[in-house]
Structure formats: structure tokens, C-alpha cells
Design goal:
- This protein is mainly alpha-helical.
- It folds into two domains: 4-198, Fumarase C, Chain B, domain 1, CATH 1.10.275.10; 205-315 and 326-407 and 419-513, Fumarase C, Chain A, domain 2.
- Helices cover 55% and strands 5% of the residues.
- The protein has helices at residues 13-20, 30-47, 73-84, 94-108, 117-128, 147-157, 173-180, 191-196, 200-230, 240-244, 249-262, 282-285, 287-309, 333-361, 384-400, 422-457, 466-477, 490-501, 504-513, and strands spanning 4-6, 26-28, 88-91, 132-133, 136-138, 162-164, 170-172, 317-318, 324-325.
- Strands 4-6-7 form a three-stranded antiparallel sheet.
- Strand 6 and strand 7 form a beta hairpin.
- Helix 3 crosses helix 6 and helix 4 packs antiparallel against helix 5 (117-128).
- The longest helix has 36 residues, at 422-457.
- The relative contact order is 0.12.
- The mean pLDDT is 95.
- Pathway: Amino-acid degradation; L-histidine degradation into L-glutamate; N-formimidoyl-L-glutamate from L-histidine: step 1/3.
- Its main location: cytoplasm.
Length: 517
Amino acid sequence: MHNVVIGADGASADDVLAVARGGAKVELSQQALTGIAASRQVIEALAAKPEPVYGVSTGFGALAVRHISPELRAQLQRSLVRSHAAGMGPSVEREVVRGLMFLRLKTLASGRTGVRPVVAETMAAILNAGITPVVHEYGSLGCSGDLAPLAHCAQVLMGEGVAEGPDGTIRPAGELLAEAGIEPVELREKEGLALINGTDGMLGMLVMACADLAQLFTAADITAALSLEALLGTERVLAPELHAIRPHPGQAASAENMRRVLEGSGFTGHHQDDAPRVQDAYSIRCAPQVAGAGRDTLAHARLVADRELISAVDNPVVLPDGRVESNGNFHGAPVAYVLDFLAIAAADLGSIAERRTDRLLDKSRSHGLPAFLADDPGVDSGLMIAQYTQAALVSEMKRLAVPASVDSIPSSAMQEDHVSMGWSAARKLRTAVDNLARIIAVELFAATRAIEMREKLTAGGLRPAPATRAIVAAVREAGIDGVGPDRFLSPDLEAAYAFVRAGKLNAAAESVTGPLA
């Protein structure tokens, strides 16, 4: 994998994913280093003046009223980092920490924070050495930056605290830095504040969630098509001209995905053979409308993320004309809102997928399929409890969809009296994304079994679509068993989840359809 070069103009979502998940190494461009050095000169000039400047020669938050003399300023920055490294709870995932460190480095490289080049260079060296600070679940209110998470990272730059080494062992940060040949940084004016004052944690998690959801929206279109096919539904509702008269782009994309998966199916269009049906149920007929609305929500979230990725989030900030100004750009509201919006979209997508699964299992609504897709209903329970598991996941998704960003709790003696809770929104979205993958996996498991059963039941030798046959074959090759007497289901369901999460469902469909949206 190539190195990610960080310039003064921000970063891309692909850069974040490459560093956070792919382990790509980073390097600072000469342009970035020049800009960093220039802004540092501004800070040093201010530090030499008698007038107080927030973050340079004052305390922080509600303590900003105190002027700090030059001999105490290094201690001021150390104390800031140490006191703010107050996280609690379990450690967050390595990819989250690498993402937030990379994004903080991106802001340092903007030349708007006033740190010395050595601070940025040391952070880059720590990332490249595979050293990952231990960051805890609780400690950020999503305003004044992700303070505690970033402070735990800043502590490691100072050679303090604990971190995970390249081998996955958690050890004192000083030992890990020494082994990697990295000199700890003694922070000077403004530098401690610049290391902790950003929306980097919530932004990194937003970028990763967007990537995951893009894959899962496609997977949901595929499983919706499989369910439609197994239920002998009509593909006529997927016609492009129907979606052109309600021109939401996500809806059109989802409908086209489903149409291409179903192309050549011998099952669709037989929805009136067993019992007259003028229309399919909403969970089948409206699948593109629901998934499409989620796609459009995702597009909006990506727009917000892209704007944030080219932002310099710090307070105070060094402006291009040399002024140093206090501001509120660290407030996480823009990111928090879309994190919550995505959790709502994911919950609704999970909900409609569960309704399709339930329809496949209910003999009164499945149009001739055995009850619970059991081999011998009554003796066998089939997928009855697989749907219970799916329903439990959907119920949790609804709880996770309750917005975090509508909450606020005053802090810092009422100086920071309105906060975004964006970190909390990001943490619950990560759980929601994982739950959604499991819900889609259960629908996949049920729909592929139903397709096989339908093929045996359908007169005239009708066959499912070529893409469907490729998917069923790939699922079985992955060791996920099909029709048969009751067995221990949990391993099959976990294997189906891994199949979806790894993108193998999408790849199986696309081996026939070509790239899907």
C-alpha cells in the first residue's frame, strides 16, 4: 500500500480508511511542514507579548481568566494533557484510534494550529511505528473536541500513558517509543491544546461507517431481490420509468440493483399463480423506496464528512493573515447530526429486512413455502428462532436510533454550556452498522433456503435468476448449509454474517450483474 501524503489542504475519506484500517504509513508534505513552521512563528511572537492569549498564555475553559507566566507554560501544556486524559471504560477499537490520530495530524498539517513541526512529525512517526494509544469508551462530549480520547493520544506523544504496540501488547508508552527510536515531545505554548481540540474521533468513525453502510445498502438490495424472487413477487415495480417520476437518486439506484439481480428469473411474475395478488406487500414492493432513502441519507452524510475532512478544527486558530482568533469550530453538531441520521436510516433498513424474513417463514403469507422453511414442519422448527434473533437485533437498532445529538449537558463550570454528544452518536452508530450486517445475513440465510425450496416446488422446471444461482452457490461454498433437518444454527448464521461483512455477497451478485450501485 502506498504512503498517504498529508498536505495543508486536508485529507480524503480514502486516506482515512487507508491509515485507520489498512495500516498505510503517512508522510508530511514539504508544503505542510512550511505552513506549520510559519504559523508557529506567529504563536511564538504572541507568547513573547504581555497581553494574554487563550491557550498560549492563559488557562483553559472556565480557567481562561488566569494569565500564565512564561516559566509555567510548559507545565501548563503537560497539565492540560494529563488532566484531560480522563477516559473510562473499555478500550475503543484500534482503527478508531488510528483514524482520530490521522485526522488530528491532518489538522496540524493545515498550518492553522500553531504547533512546531516536531509535534506533527512525532505523531506521524507514532502512527508509522504501529503504536496505538489506549483510548477509552467514555470521556468525550463532542464539544471542545473529542477531549479525553485525543488527550490519551497526546499523552503518548509525551512518552506517558499506555499504548498498544505493533504486536498487540499493551505497554507503557515510553517503552514503546524508545524501542521505535521516537523521542517524546516536550509540549510548548498552545501545543497541548492543539492536540486535543478537534472532532477527529467522531469524524473518523463517520468516515468508516459511511464506507460500511455503502456496502450494506447494496447487500440489502440483493437480499430484498432474493426475497422477492422466493415469494414469487413481481419485478415490474422495479421498472426505471416508475422511479423516474419520483426522482430520488437513491431509490432509482436500489431499484436498478434489484432489477439487475432478478434479470432472467423464472420465478418473478408468478405472483398470481397460487393465489391472486394484485400487489406485493410493502416490505417487498417498497424496498427501493426505503433503501433508497437510506442511500440519499448516506450521500448527505458523506458531503458533511468531506467538508469536515478539509477543515482545520482548533481553538484558537491561526488565520492566513496572521491573526489568532478564538472560535467555535470544534463544536461537533454537523457531524453528530448525520451520525444520528445514519443510525435512523440503518434501523429502518433493518426493520424492513426483518419483515421480509418473517414473510418467508409464515406459511400463510409465503405462497406455498413450508412453515418456517423447515424440512419437516412440526418435527423441525426450521428458521423460527433465527427470525427471533433478527427481531432482537432490529429492536436494539430502534433503541440505537434515538438521537444522541438532541442531548446536551453543561460542563466546565457552565463555560461549555452546550455540547454535541457526537462521540456518543458515533459509538452507537458503530454498533448499529454491525447489527445491520447481522440482520441482512439472516435474510440472506432465509432467502437462499427459500429459493432452493421454491425450485423444488415450482412446476415446469422454472429456475431462479443467474445472479441468484451464483449467490446460492457462493453461500454454500462458504460452508453455510441449506435445506435439511434441524441443526445447530448459530455457526451458519455467524458464517452468513461474515459473508456479508466481507463483501462476498456483493461480489457473488456482481460476478453476474457487473458492478452494482
